[in-house]
């Protein structure tokens, strides 16, 4: 079924059915991408370890918000 056929079929639905479809699609877009989430977790852990090992320095919050 093509995208056009899906849209044409969806437009024939009742308003509550359309709402269900739209909400389902939007919910699927909000699901985190596990691969990207794992990459960020690894990066955060690496940065924390580098900070603890003295390879990185922290920046005071006041300095960050001055900019």
Quick overview:
75% of the residues lie in helices and 0% in strands. The chain has four helices and no strands. The longest helix is centred in the middle third of the chain and has 19 residues, at 34-52.
Structure description:
With 67 residues, the chain is mainly alpha-helical. Helices cover 75% and strands 0% of the residues. The chain contains 4 helices and no strands. The chain has helices spanning 3-11, 15-30, 34-52, 61-66. The longest helix is centred in the middle third of the chain and has 19 residues, at 34-52. The radius of gyration is 23 Å and the shape is elongated. The N and C termini lie far apart (52 Å). The model has no long low-confidence stretch (mean pLDDT 93).
Which percent range fits the helix content?
over 70%
Radius of gyration: 23 Å
Regions with little confidence, pLDDT below 50 for 5+ residues: none
The overall average pLDDT, rounded, is 93
Tell me the span between the first and last alpha carbons.
52 Å
Could you give the count of β-strands? 0
What fraction of the residues are assigned to beta strands by DSSP? under 5%
Biggest sheet: strands, sense, closure?
none
Structural class: mainly alpha
What pattern of helices and strands is seen along the backbone? HHHH
Number of helices: 4
User: How would you describe the shape?
Assistant: elongated
């Amino acid at each position: 079924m093509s995208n056009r056929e899906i849209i044409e079929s969806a437009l024939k639905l009742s308003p509550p059915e359309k709402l269900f479809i739209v909400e389902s699609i939007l919910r699927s877009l909000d699901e985190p991408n596990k691969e990207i989430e794992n990459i960020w977790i690894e990066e955060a852990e690496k940065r924390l370890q580098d900070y603890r090992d003295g390879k990185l320095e922290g920046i005071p919050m006041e300095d960050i918000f001055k900019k």
